[in-house]
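PROTEIN DATA CARD
Card holder: AraC family transcriptional regulator N-terminal domain-containing protein
Chain length: 295
Origin: Paractinoplanes globisporus
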Amino acid sequence: MALDELRALLARHARPDQTTAIDDVLISAVEQPEPPSSSTSGTVLALIARGAKRLALGDRVYEYRAGQYLIASVDLPVTGHFTEVPAIGFGLILRPRMIAELLLEAAPGDLPPAAGGTPPALAVSTASGDLLDAVIRLLRLLDHPRDHAVLAPMLKREILWRLITGDQGSVVRQLGLADSSLTHVARAVGWIRDHYSQAFRVEEVAQLSGMSVSAFYRNFQAVTAMSPIQFQKQIRLQQARLLLATHPNDVAGVSHRVGYDSPSQFSREYRRQFGAPPSQDATRLRDRPPGAALV
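Structure generated from the sequence above:
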């Protein structure tokens, strides 16, 4: 059975840092239950071979389990955890350039019709037999290092092609289209992430992303499940928590560095996000075992 071989390959090559000897190929293995943690999604294919996972983005919740995959087409702040353990899964970082190349090479009629509207940044589907087969053949290369340079790029292209022509093809294809609404939103997301501590006018970011204000609001909400200001707040709070992990006694300074003018507002929003006020959470972060994850 395909999932049995997939589990065996993933278990054999899993590393603590999730990386593998093949660029952009990741393996995630979790043995014990963990509370939900905040992170960024990356642009990735995530396929579960054992267990189940739940992700929250804004007011949307996504769940997927063994034999299903999640596509993340924009790097967004998410909260997630494995709901069934032990769990193990395969990840492939999605590169827009590779997707664009496949779209250019496709013959007329090879691609299914594009879905209407702007697709959300996250989408879940059941993996086809062809997709599982391509992933398994890519993972088999981990046992044959001399084949990586020649065969791995070919198999990554096959996996991307299965995605492009699969259930979530519209989401994946937009990653490779320079003028897609998803690409415009991703441009805005990148700008807000790089300038998260600065106040901004939505009109200015809409202009930077190449959309009218009304189209920007509509597409940003469709992709991220958040308004631009809500998205900025998520980035600020995640960055604040990272800073508190190394500066646990400087709550006021961290608050100011991430862009809050009001310490009380920072404390209120931080507690709502992480379940404890900054000072208490900072103590917990300071006392955590070396190398432990922020959860």
